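Onboarding guide, step 5: your first structure request.
Type a short instruction followed by the sequence, for example:

Predict the 3D structure of this protein.
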Amino acid sequence: MTEETILEGRTYAIISYITIIGTLIAFFINNEKKNEFAYFHIRQALGLWLTFFALGYVVGIFDRWLITFAFWLFFGVLFIYGFMNAVAGKPQTVPLVGNFYQKIFSSLGK
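The system replies with structure tokens like these:
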């Protein structure tokens, strides 16, 4: 990735981490431009959001404050990590699950 590609796609990469709606907006806007840096972070954010909602449903069944707090803390750290990498212009995956998201959503943006 060139510096120009990173600068062009950084705005969409940042937007993708804000909400699930932001991820969808960034995806559809970037669909015309096909910026690979933006797609990298859109794949990361989409994976985080989908995992957050799926696991959130399971965590909600247990309804224990310690489990819920750990869940929110875990995903909060991952979202902040991804967001900070998007702001810094780094194509770096989020820990533990980032490489998995890149493989699963590899066709996104092609």
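Each response can be followed by summary notes, for example: The mean pLDDT is 89.
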